Amino acid sequence: MTDVRLQRLADVLVQYSVEVKRGDWVHLGGDASGLPALRALYQSVVRAGANPTISISDEFMGRTLLREGSEDQLAWVSPLETLLTDQVDATIRLIASNNTRAMTSIDPKRQQHMQLARGPIMETIMRRSAEGALNWVLTLYPTEAGAQEANMSLEEYADFVYSATFCDREDPVAEWRKVSEMQQQKVDWLKGKKHVRLQGPNIDLELSIADRVFLNADGRRNMPDGEIFTGPVENSANGWVRFTYPSIVNGKAVSGIELRFSEGKVIEARAEQNDDLLQSQLNADEGARYLGEFAIGTNFGINRFTGNILFDEKIGGTVHMAVGRSYPETGGVNRSVIHWDMICDMRTDSEIHVDSELFYKNGQFIV
Amino acid sequence: MSDVRMLRLADVLVNYSTQVQKGEWVGILGDVSALPLLREVYRTVLCAGGNPTLFISDETMNRIFAREASEEQINWLDPTQTLYIDQADVFIRVGSSTNTRAMTGIDARRVQAINVARRPWLDRRLTRAAEGKFKWVGTWLPTDASAQEANMSLEEYADFVYGATFCDHDDPVAQWLKISEMQQHKVDWLAGKRDVKLRGPQVDLSLSIEGRTFINSDGKHNMPSGEIFTGPVEESVNGWVRFSYPSIVGGRAVSGIELHFHDGKVIDAKAEQNQDLLYAQLDTDAGSRYLGEFAIGTNFGINRFTGNILFDEKIGGTIHCAIGMGYPETGSLNRSAVHWDMICDMRTDSEIWVDGELLYRDGAFTV
Fold it and tell me: What are the DSSP E strand ranges found in B8-148?
């Protein structure tokens, strides 16, 4: 008996997130450990009258390539990947894992070498997506490994995932439309505003959003979703922030991060754990010490930290910022090889003022 | 710990059957239930310097498609498959199953329609193979389902499979080279011959092999192998044959098949079980009532019928004929979306005469 929530998730992704239409070419990709979800998605795509191409990957083989492949083999991009990226109408990418720590001993340089070769693929995805020619969405299927990473049992973790995606409701699409409408009202209110000031026990920071665009992340690109985000004016951030939750880089947690900004740049940084990783991230390149994103999480179905950024950054009552690359569609112009999110809890004694008006208090919007 | 015999099988496939070279584009195809062997093949291809592309399929999705796809969806050809078959160098397919009877409830005509739609892929693959531009091999990984289909336990069935592929020997390749030499001797003897007559309790058939080529099937395309085969002159087949073992189509067994040929065409056909499937196969297209293959099985490591054509057709002491698609490299001109093998036991009171000389008696060659 299939979990009815899984079928709902598949339908939300196919019918709402990427809006598959009859005759569309749809690419489904994910690890073999996500097979139940891939099957549900496959069925949903076939029922929508579209043409699915399925790419089932295997973590084990992925590791074999990273460990044993030559430089040429790592950099080889299958012509099929290029063809799919150039031509499909929609892509649904599923995260699923049998072991979230299995990559621990793999040399990150070899991963970077592989990612570098896939740069043109990423660029095509971004370009076609911006042109409206490609709809894509990223989601997650709960496995034992994902549950373990989150310190939960599988049944608790499944409850968590399906609640965050509203798939524990009979009509999740209706819920996402509500979120979308609520967020759109905030985005509209923020239009033309300039100055943002965040205050609270963890934060005392100001930044400018003049001429920048807030985007309504309403489940089209990420499932779950629930945030509004922009790219702050690059040299405008001043002040201090202490991030509440660990930030993960290459599977390793950096916790107790504190950053101090002056004219946009991180001038002081420390972490309680894995401080060396924090420093190496900030020193990655010129853009790595500037913010590429400022965002407010709105999903109160996500009420705990699980170490997976797909969920963590949307926690209702938090804000997050990313050092590094900004999203061009926000108007952000920061360039960097990194984009690293950090999350700050705003649910206690915290406020956001925008152009001196109270916009947000203790995790809730006021306007 | 992996079964050492499975590691040998991966090595045979990559380094003997397809002889993967540095820089070659290698497709690795199989069901998710074949993951253990797919992983070893993947590693071995990397070691040989090839660039592997994975095509992992799933029986459940195949059934969803066979049950629910519209005519439009069935006729859609996945451009990634077309590109792969047009341009890749190597095709390694691992068969396996989690339930050999799962297709029982699917309408045979729908399965047929899917095969017809995908016929251009089969044509293209065989044509490129005949031109020497595409190396391909198919093999089989033992699972409980196939063991059950063969009335064996998994460990008995694994012994059977690795026995048939010589992977229970330290040096399976040496064994395959011996078979190759023995078969080449028969193929050389048959070169330039014309008339073949088969006589026995189950067969009374004549056919022409004039101008046609016998192929030495020595483990390059099938693993296990052990047969010599040709495509008979299309309109030359006359007489009658009763096949000893059931032939499987879409997971269903058609048993007790008898065919009457006149000038190459099947003019009368019956089966004891699933006769409707036999007719559906014969009526697929213009080529499906003509023989595309005539072959002699030589693998005495395969000493029992298991319901899997990869093994059954090589049973030492049997012959088999296939209706439908012929292999172009034999000189066969028959084209069809079907290629369906049927096996006739020749171990008792049976003979094959070629141009008036006795070639074969009671399951053994006499030349």
Answer: 25-31, 51-57, 90-95, 135-140
